[in-house]
Write a structure and sequence with these properties.
The protein is α+β, with helices and mostly antiparallel strands. It contains 8 helices and 20 strands. The longest helix has 19 residues, at 304-322. The two termini are 24 Å apart. The protein binds uridine-diphosphate-2(N-acetylglucosaminyl) butyric acid.
Length: 334
Amino acid sequence: MIQENIDITRRHTFGIATRARAWADYSSVDELRILLQEAHKQQWAYMPIGEGSNLLFVKNYEGLLLHSAIKSLNVTTSLNNEVLVQAGSGWIWDDFVAYCVAQGWYGVENLSYIPGTVGASAVQNVGAYGVEACDVIESVTLLATDTLKECTIKASDCGYGYRTSHFKGDWKGMYIVTAVTFRLSTTPHYTLDYGNLHQWVGDTPSLQGVRNAVIEIRRKKLPEPHELGSAGSFFVNPVISREHYSKLQEKHPDIPCYEIDEQRVKEPAAWLIDRLKWKGKSLGGAMVYPEQPLVIVNTGNAKAGHVVQLAQDIAFSVLMEFGIAITPEVNYIY
Ligand code: EPU
């Protein structure tokens, strides 16, 4: 199952030339157990990888990359206009969304066309157009990396927040996601209040219509991973105090924000970066995407160092002008 010294340039969406010590695809939990036993025996570092759509390999990876090809699908309950569907971690996320839409199951359509896998969606809590994965995740099934036992954890215990979970924080490295159970609805309901999504969808929405609109918007704004390497949004949108926001309004009266609570607002980092005129600027083979400045793209021959340097320069300029420290959403892998 294990392939050694492998070129992984095309196995992560940034497409930066990278090699890994080893790579293994597994299609069952038992195969994953065997691979983990081997990694422990050889004392290799290891890391789960999906489509590699949120990773920046800063150098060659000196360990074993574990790639799920678990593509099971079980509808566990179908009651009260709800369906509980458990999908294996290896499903391509958008194939899963397309399947749910075709079945007439509501809940994930706003998350259409996000690169990545079902397993990664539960770690990263992917989100778009007013919906986050945690809104529809019921539970996550995992393999504990030390005991090699399987367990299922309810979504409410996974520490979900904006682009975060315990799997990225306190529990990092402790589990590998093997399947995710989603609670979807069979009665029509739509979330269309983000930006101009409603306009794109029109006054008579349909499940497939929402999926089509989201795909159209994403195609317009975001690079196609197979055409131009990137890892989607490079930074998370920062949260600041209302006091800080009011101060910024004095110099930038048109600065937008999203409401969070009485004390805090969230800033669209794209706006801050746009205001500092970063669109289209490049460093080596790394460039700020002209249509969406939150995205850094590989124009063909980017080195990880170009991306890291460009990201640092952007973050520094945002800090200097707005007093806001923006942090990467992308995981740097050393
Ligand atoms: N904006 C500009 N200039 C631009 C683009 C955007 O000023 O060129 C400002 C505008 O004020 C706009 C705001 O930024 O209203 C927000 O832009 P957008 O709707 O494109 O969303 P975003 O906050 O930049 C987030 C997610 C995306 C997700 C979109 C849509 C994060 C880090 N990113 O981007 O997720 O697709 O919302 O929901 O939260 C990803 O995580 O990789 C990703 C692409």
